């Protein structure tokens, strides 16, 4: 309970922010497995906000949206990944997968 408050109050303390980001990421994965999807999304978005440079936090959030068939976000997040990490084959594959799976009427 106190860790998120510390991370917000001390944005320059990267160790607290990194710890909270990892904690939120793990919570997001756990919530997803438990099918608590709103909680999973909130935790994954918090992890990404706390550590915006993390490939993994963006990637898993993209996977989350892909699995939920949230096509605008399922494409948007991988596009951001490809822009940030243009040589990363996992980012390119996620974007390609999202574009291929998106409903035809959404094209």
| Approximate shape | flat
Helix-strand topology string: HHHHHH
Q: How would you characterize the largest beta sheet?
A: none
The chain-level mean pLDDT equals 86
The secondary structure category is: mainly alpha
List low-confidence stretches: none
Could you tell me how far the N terminus lies from the C terminus, measured between alpha carbons in angstroms?
A: 43 Å
**Radius of gyration based on Cα positions:** 15 Å
Concise overview:
The protein is mainly alpha-helical. It has six helices and no strands. The mean pLDDT is 86.
Write a structural description.
It is a single chain. Helices cover 77% and strands 0% of the residues. The chain contains 6 helices and no strands. The radius of gyration is 15 Å and the shape is flat. It has helices at 2-9, 14-33, 37-50, 55-67, 71-84, 89-101. The relative contact order is 0.11. Helix 1 crosses helix 2 and helix 2 packs antiparallel against helix 3 (37-50).
Write the layout of secondary structure elements.
Layout lengths: L1 H8 L4 H20 L3 H14 L4 H13 L3 H14 L4 H13 L6
Helix pairs in contact: 1-2, 2-3, 3-4, 4-5, 4-6, 5-6
Features:
6 helices, mainly alpha, 107 residues
